[in-house]
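Good morning,

Both structures are done.
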Amino acid sequence: MRFGLFGKAETRKSGDAKAEAKAAAERLKVQVREHLGLPETAAIAVNEIICADPACPGSETVILVMKPGEKTRAYKLQMAMAEVTAEALADALRA
């Protein structure tokens, strides 16, 4: 399957870059779970996407929170996963 410009950025990385992206995603998942007080039954997906549209910042981090029996909630940060700070994450989760 081809994703084009909006494909997952991680699929185009290699070696150490993939390991760093995975570590950043795991770090963000832990922070999201703690900040929102989510139970273990909640699933969290963290992805970095690349947008070629001039209105986009280039890389965007998208966080999906899926709790059983509830609608999926999406949070977006206009930066790459590795650039997401605790403060930026807290701001996005408040929105």
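Second structure follows.
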Amino acid sequence: MTKIASFNINGIKARLPRLLEWLEETRPDIACLQEIKSQDEGFPADAFEKAGYGAIWHGQKSFNGVAILARGAQPVETKRGLDGEPEDEQSRYLEADVTIGDAEQSLRVACIYLPNGNPQPGPKFDYKLRWMERLRARARQIWAEEVPAILAGDYNVIPRDNDVWSPPAMASDALMQPESRGAYQRLLNDGWTDPIGNWHPDGQIWTYWDYQRGAWQRDHGFRIDHLLLSPQAADRLKAVGVDKDHRGREKASDHAPTWVELRG
């Protein structure tokens, strides 16, 4: 069994004790981290090595940043950043092949921190939509390789009305605009599977609770962290889940770890 998780850690230095605690308690084989908010030279690779994880990372000072951890293995980087806008210096995409244990085949894992897009309309929303089209182009290239693959991360997209505690409360947000949802749906139309959405068709599964307005205490959350599976990975799907209790711990991220388990 291989467990792959996505976790927007919201500052890897500030949350390192919580992150190491989660790794120890849940022992994912692969962990995709977003919003590490660390320059490359400041990434705490030694701490993960002591915890038994190899790591690669794509950092940026104070903002963004993504990383891939593998238990007892070293991720082999296959791509850093997305094609299409050479001037884009934001660290939001990292991709690797990961072989866990004595598995016969590696997994292709993409770690994604998709732009938020607020305020909309405006240049930040336009950038979000362009970025999603660039992601789709890369996803099609991965698809053509016919490998087991996972596109894991914080997509900053609420796919359906039942993926948010109150659709009217978020109606004007970039996360719920028809253009954002349409771009996400095009990935699904290309053949990628949203396993948590499929396993929970009635929704009400949150992965994010804002720090403001008592959102956690009132369970006012929404689902924006997704792990999309290629057919070769979806055929091996055994379980999905959200480690909700980790959101309620002291000095926690505003996201909860979200995961899938694959056979083999």
